[in-house]
Amino acid sequence: MPVGQFDTAARPTDRLFFALLPEADAAAQLAQCSRRLRSQLGLTGRPIATERLHITLHFVSDCVGLPRDRVAAVSQAVARIAIPPFDIQLDRAKSFCQKPRNRPFVLIPGEDIPALNVLQRALTSAMAQAQLGKQAASHFTPHLTLLYDDRCVTERAIETIAWTAREFVLVHSLIGRARHVVLACWPLRG
Question: What is the DSSP string of the chain?
Answer without folding.
Answer: --TT----SSPP-EEEEEEE---HHHHHHHHHHHHHHHHHHT--SPPPPGGG--EEEEEEEEESS--HHHHHHHHHHHTT-----EEEEEEEEEE--SSSSSEEEEEE-SS--HHHHHHHHHHHHHHHHTT-SPPPPSS----EEEEEESS-PPPEEEEEEEEEE-EEEEEEEETTTTEEEEEEEEE---
